Amino acid sequence: MRKLTILFLTVLIFSGMFYSCQTAETIQQDAYYVNGRDLYINHCQNCHGTKGEGLGELIPPLTDSVFMKTNKQKLACYIKNGVSEKLTVHGKVYEGKMEPLNLATIDLAQVIVYITNGFGHQQGMYTTEQVTTDLGNCK
Amino acid sequence: MNNPLHFFSALLLGTVLLTASCKEERKLPIYGVRDTKEVAKADGFTVDTIYQTIPDFKFLNQDSVMITNDQFKDKIYVADFFFTSCTSICPIMHKNMKTLFQDFKSNPDVMFLSHTIDFKYDKPSVLKKYAQKLDVYDPKWQFVYGPKDSIYTIAEKSYLVAVQVDSNDREGYVHQGFLVLIDKDRRIRGAYDGTNPEQVEQLRKDIPVLLDEYKK
To answer: Which residue of chain A is at minimal alpha-carbon distance from B196?
Structure first.
């Protein structure tokens, strides 16, 4: 019984430490991630798949970490304005068109947090301010 | 029967045998409009049911070859309507259809037939490229192109799938995502929502059931 109490207390202390370590930013990031997942399911999943696996050579997967990292500033433009240029993902060239999707700034931020932290990526927070800046630099 | 375990196993065995013998062979329904016809026989008349069938068709396939019903003679096939630039339901439909294609790849009695409803853009060369990129470029899966009239008529009248040009829609076309199962006698034996994983699984189970009908 005593052992059990000690174990319980230890777990309590550790989880308490873990929660107090979470900053306001990571809590916000988690909220974005969860909302972003809903947006992804509604707007993106049909083509890009439940695991971001894409479809053959028609629709690029979202699992290429190098691509996602180097093109992070372009993601908002891609989603909002669509894509008609050729993209190389996982070494394969995709030349299909993606239709523009008119999402609000906050929705763009949330869905981008989801796709850059899901599918094996870990790129952290992406704010609405960053969306506005990146959209200003769209080609 | 003094041992309860013996009694229990006997009961279990009995139940299993009974249910197994009761199990009727599943048969797929036949869809579409029916008609009757009187047929002359030696001793009078008998009434036959005439089922709705897929009429003769002639379309250009992904290799720009004119194909007809002959291509599907003695085959059962899964038909659908799509267009290559569609981003709404087509990708998921064809993703699911591709898994069926892979499962029945080695079965010579099963084929696939996708009709494009984009008569302006989806010429055979576009269809070929699409098939290659989907990694299903194979005579077993035919992608066909035809004039608007014949494709839209066969969709609505024969396969019972609604398709239409819609200038209000961003992509210009609206259509239903059904995968229609056709038997060797050109009759409709099932329609499954190609975007719904459960219905696609049902189709996966129904194809062997339909094939069994033709086994003698």
So the answer is: A46
Residue B38 covered by a domain: no
Tell me the per-residue pLDDT of B26-58, one tens digit each, with 9 for 90 and over.
899 999 888 888 888 888 888 888 999 999 999
- Asked casually if ipTM beats, i.e. exceeds, 0.95, the reply is no
Question: Which residues of chain B neighbour A57 with C-beta distances below 8 Å?
Answer: 132-135
| Distance (Å, whole) CA A87 – CA B171 | 22
Structural domains counted in chain B: 1
Question: Which top CATH class is A24-136?
Answer: mainly alpha
pTM, two decimal places: 0.79
For residue A96, the chain B residues in CB contact (below 8 A) are 133
What CATH number does residue B153 fall under?
Answer: 3.40.30.10
The domain of B152 spans 53-213
Tens-digit pLDDT profile for residues A30-87: 999 999 999 999 999 988 999 999 999 999 999 999 999 999 999 999 999 999 999 9
Torsion of CA A69, A84, A133, A49, to 10 degrees: -50
Lookup: tokens for B68: 């007809």
Nearest CA in chain A to B88: A46
Contacts of B146 (CB under 8 A, 6+ apart): B57, B58, B59, B60, B115, B119
- Where are the domains positioned within chain A? 24-136
